[in-house]
Amino acid sequence: MQPAHAARTARRYEVIGDEAAFRALQHEWDVLWSRAHGHYYQSFSYCWLAWRHVSKPHGRRLKCIVCREGGQLVMIWPLETCRRALWTYLVPLGPEGGDYTSVLVQDGEAAPALIAGAWDTARRRCGADFIHLQYVRETLELYTLVSRERSVLFAEAHNAFAARLRGRGERNGWDDYCRTLGTLFGKRPGGFAKRLSREGKVAVRVVDPAEESETASIVEWMLNCKRSWSDRVGKRSAWLDSPEYECFLAKLIHSPDVPSMARLIVVTLNEAPVAAIIVSVGNPWASAIFAGYDPYYGRCCPGLVAVEACVKWAFDNGFDLDFGVGNERFKAYWSRGEASTAWTVRTVNSLWGLLAIRGWRLARYLGARVKGLREAGAASPEAARVFTRDGKRATRVS
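The line above is the sequence of CelD/BcsL family acetyltransferase involved in cellulose biosynthesis; the predicted structure tokens follow.
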């Protein structure tokens, strides 16, 4: 057996910033992703499409950390850097949506050391002033490493929900499974579809990934619905207005460059879409990526019909289903209340970054002091003299 110190000596980390070298990883990456049961956002297909259609057009720089042992690829952590004012941020590769952050590595005794090496490489070799990681699961080794940093700028916790469905279809059918559930907003599975059917003919289908034109049209419609919703609730995100992000979502479903990573499930009313959801192909975890519904039919909850169809699709295909972060009641319902915690964490990673933080804090302190002095001055009778003109006479206003 090879001694542990010899294995560490043979372990080599590299930061890949060249697009051609990144592309050349595809075969090895696919093998590792399948072996490690990676999530969709860890796949080569997702990362390649994210780089080509989102990150590169926005001027970001590729920083993909890989590790080899004896020449074999054993770990991948796809990252990128972006400039914000005078500072460089290291972030996960891809759109800043709702995806988790984690390192692709096969479970085993070596995994913690490989992840620790990836974190050390990110800190020392990627040239970042700040490292910003969104939705790192609390149970991961990566979270343990990041939370131990002395220079954590902030950390925010989020609830995350996932439905464990694998194997249930082998023991009983969908109807039997639904009978084990309670109610959501007073209705059992199928209830919201019945309510919607009072408005007309309801149908649910999975769009053929090869139908590029229809896929693009429905994705555009979904984003328009999402923009309308975000305006109503006051939660506008920059990626909602990004044509690159719209293209990326469609390419996840069908692209000539890489295998399809997602399916588009559409709910129609009288043959017109009223809700749709994009779900990743499972490995074996599937993920609900993006959804939209027509607010005109909001009282009929077409979005919940789409979610139920998504759960059934995962159930029928033998996948578990991750709903991502958020406290929406439907997530807790389908997950049977089983929640986990994911953290968004930002660390300071350079002296330049530390100076920026101290400068920002000083500016806030001085701003608060000036505001306090102004408010104190306004409250003083002697300092609050205001005059108006009444012909040639000046009159003090008390």
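Note on the example: The radius of gyration is 26 Å. Confidence is low (pLDDT under 50) at residues 383-398.
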